[in-house]
TrEMBL record:
Record has Cell cycle as a keyword: no
Function per UniProt: Involved in ribosome biogenesis; more specifically in 18S rRNA pseudouridylation and in cleavage of pre-rRNA.
GO biological process: pseudouridine synthesis; rRNA processing
Protein name: Ribosome biogenesis protein Nop10
């Protein structure tokens, strides 16, 4: 899933705070922008199986 909101890739060096944009370039400094959202999960997550099993156990417990 791709996010439309992008952030300046050089904001740490050139700006006081993140600069967000919808374009491929930063409106303030002209640097390239990158996707601002982190990946939703890591497909190589070594503990994913255990987290999902715990989540299933908690969902099955009576309240």
């Amino acid at each position: 899933m791709k996010s439309d909101i992008r952030v300046c890739s050089a904001w740490r060096d050139r700006h006081d705070r993140p600069v967000y944009s919808l374009s491929e370039t930063c409106p303030e400094c002209g640097a390239a922008t990158e996707n601002s959202a982190p990946a939703p999960y890591n497909p190589e997550d070594p503990h994913g199986e255990y987290r999902r099993a715990r989540k299933r156990r908690l969902a099955e417990e009576p309240e």
